[in-house]
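User: I'm writing a tutorial on reading structure tokens. Could you give me a worked example: one chain, its sequence, then its tokens, then a sentence or two explaining what the tokens reveal?
Assistant: Sure. Here is the example chain.
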Amino acid sequence: MALDIFKITGPVSLAGAVTISGSKNAALPIMAATILAPGKNTLLGIPNLSDISVMCKLMEDMGCKTNADGGSIAIDTTNIEKPFGDYEIVRKMRAGVCVLGPLLARQGRAEVSMPGGCAIGYRPVDIHLRGLQELGAKIELKNGYIVAHANGGLKGTNIFLGGPFGSSVLATANVLSAAVLAKGKTVIESAACEPEVTDLANCLVKMGAKISGIGSPQLTIHGVKHLNPVEYTVIPDRIEAGTFLAAAAITKGKLKLKNCRLEHLMAVVDKLRSMNIPVEETQDGCEISSNGRIQPTDITTLPYPGFPTDLQAQFMAVLCLANGNSVITEKIFPDRFMHIAELSRMAANLRKEGPHVIVSGVEKLIAAPVMASDLRASAALVVAALAAYGQTVVNRVYHIDRGYEKIEEKLNAVGAKIERQSV
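And here are its predicted structure tokens:
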């Protein structure tokens, strides 16, 4: 199989406008949730990504029909022939586990492979299973598959979804999707508050679900007997937007981001302003202008509305060029530091101490061949390469294709020099 690489020549200064795509992390659970509403659903603002293609394949394997057409996906969920999530599909993408709750609620049974995804540390699904068991599901693990039954139907109850690193976005999505068809009232405590969960809840409400407390850590759901197919537009991708903010910051660039919701990025904007990089809101997004030396800052990743773990790697790249020492603390995935070794190859000065990384700013980054280990780490390497002197070769860019729609085309349009090659 041919593997693509990026050849990135730097340093450059980015300038112009970028349109942010729809959110991958919102789209995937919403696609899974269409299982709850038999019929023809239409989702708009869907990015053209390999993870989206995998979810389409997973749903087609169950008997659904999907048709992607330039940012929209029609999903006909009239027939679920087999409530089964095959290992060969689910192993490619962690969000595949999102079909578990909807299948269980609609079919009364589901068999879904334990999920795969990025190599960013141990991410158990016990919170998903505990929540579904509270709703009355019988669950066992058999040959690498989660086998769930709810023969008497699901029943509403009070559920606590907190885990050792806070609330779980995908577990909240799974349990919420199951609870909307459960009998009676469900209260989810310590629900994830991320915008992607809010987007799923808003979509479910449009389908006919009864949910209150949306956007808060306490969701109250009154079960309904059925849901109706929907047409729904997903929110813009705040992680893609944050990555472009990082790219502008490190290149001393000036970018206008369109189709971007700044209210979803306030922790990021706050850090940029503390780094001497102004960000201003515009009618449909924001504008960032970076000039002068980047000031050091301390970043701690936290559940929303805190600083997103999915932007930790990209901002580590930016702080490599700061005027002093910064400390980055990872509180969501303490092992999410695969990018340190690769950034160090580009002359970054990084020292890991447990869940902390001390970033000592250097005068310049130097191009080097580097290897992408996961989705966000690969984005960090691209961000660093834009400011590095010489030609950086980023290997295994299939990771970046999972979460960024045509990133090299978008960056090249605002001044980057990125060439994609198959090797």
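What the tokens reveal: The first helix runs from residue 24 to 33. The longest strand covers residues 4-10.
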